[in-house]
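Blinded run. Sample ID left blank on purpose so nobody reads anything into the name before looking at the predicted structure. Input follows.
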Amino acid sequence: MPAVSVDTFFACSLMVMLVLSAMAITTKLVFPSMNATSNRNLAERYKETSKYLLLNTGKPSNWGQDSQTTPETFGLAKPNADSEYDLDRDKVSRLNTENAYAVSYPDIFTSLEMSDLSFRIKIEPVFKVSTKLAGAFLSGDDTVYEFEISTDKQGAPVSAQLKIHVVAGEYLNSISVLVTNGRISQNITLPNSVSGPALLIVFAHSLYNDKIVSFDVLAFAHNSSQPNSRGALLRSSPLNYNLNVSLLDSRIVLANAYALTFSYNSTLLLTSNATMSATYAIPRFLDDSMTVLVVTGSNSTAFFTEWTTYPQIPVENGPDLANLSTLSSVFSFKYLVTIDSAIYECTILVGGPEE
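Blinded prediction complete.
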């Protein structure tokens, strides 16, 4: 199918989903033999359960912002939301087990107060951005890196506007690129005077709806050894517009911290600093984009870059229901949700026990 046709189909499909966002896309994953009436009744109950998770704030309604609060009743909706399926960025972030203030699934299960049901929730961008380092060569006092960047929805190319940020130590630069057929080769130049490792951060807005956003982050060596695995040196936990950083090695010295979105970038303000932790204030950007938070520093003599997102997505929480032998019925529901105006895809699996 030509790229234009795929993009048109993609855009039309998204518009249909937006118009019908209150109607879940229902998929039956596991189901025993039972009559059609029982089937419909069970599917409707599970669907209402999935909607409950997204349409209710829980109790207290601001449980996401307080790191010490476990919800008495569970719900992900933003307090005083302007529309349905508008989720709270801190509640979503606390679903992520990488966050130091994550709410455990047992606590969620208890607060849901539906002891005969289990669920799994996944929130992710509507389409995917993939970045690969294809090559590098010296050019005078610089190194030029060639990256291959693709944007797709389940293998179908997506046309998008890209904003590319590159971060290495105190170096920060940004460029804008248009992708019309879902794939582009892009050169990025870094001065050899800059110490790495470096991060390439790619944000993408769908050309058909700039609230449909996605991203990818790639760490690569630049005048340095290969980057550490993500989370090896720091635990970064965004909450209530603060980035809380826990140091996992006593030799770590923090250097710079940045907040980056599609349209903006800013140096983070250090608000507190202790022996093994630090806190930075996160700016409230007026942008339909997730925020990528980057912290740089050194571990003895080696430099590092660490990153996370705010809201902390993609995120997935809950047991693997499709392979849980104690369940006899599992349904999957898909929704489009918003988090601070940006649109994401949410998949909820709901299952019940053997009868």
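Unblinding after everyone has recorded impressions. The two ends are 46 Å apart (CA to CA).
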